[in-house]
Amino acid sequence: AMAGPPGLKPLVAVAQVTSTPDKEQNFTSCARLVREAARRGAGIVFLPEGFDYIGGDTTQTLALAEGLDGDIMGRYSGLARDCGVWLSLGGFHERGQDWATTQRIYNCHALLDPAGSLVATYRKTHLCDVELEGRVTMKESSFTNPGTEIVAPVSTPAGKLGLSICYDLRFPEISLALRQAGAEVLTYPSAFTYPTGSAHWEV
Question: Which residues does the UniProt record annotate as the domain CN hydrolase (predicted)?
Answer without folding.
Answer: 8-203
